[in-house]
Write the structure tokens for this entry.
Amino acid sequence: MARPPLQQVLILVYCIYFLRHIWSLALWLFSGSNMQNQNNQNGVFSAVLKGKCPRCRQGDMFKHSPVNLKGFGAMHRYCPSCGHQFEQEPGFYYGAMYVSYAVSVGVFLVTSLLVYLLFNNPSVTAYVIAVGVVSALLYPLNFRYSRIFFTYLFSGVKYEPNRKE
């Protein structure tokens, strides 16, 4: 049984409304009240998006771009700018698997919802193919950002713009 067009539009509007609030919450959590400080350094949200060091917010955490499929996961051992050691202890990034799992579940749900809304509840094969393709395409970003989020949330490193080791 096909859904009436009005109901599909209302579901889409609700999803956009919900995503707008999630985006506002993310901005509030990562930027606080000062998105840019007086020295024109990166704010937390900007540093997370760019994959910068949590201590100085200037050095890159990863050696290569996420589009470099051979080296998208290669991390610097130390920050090129301030010398901060990214992996504080052996196995530190095992916890990032939980963040990656949460991001993957979100990708699965959003992809499934979009397939449902755009193709009017197709067969299970269409869902599996769509989720598989989107997950494979987003894997390098999922890998990188799960490590970045984990580092910023659980490493206990504070922003120190003038610290050099």
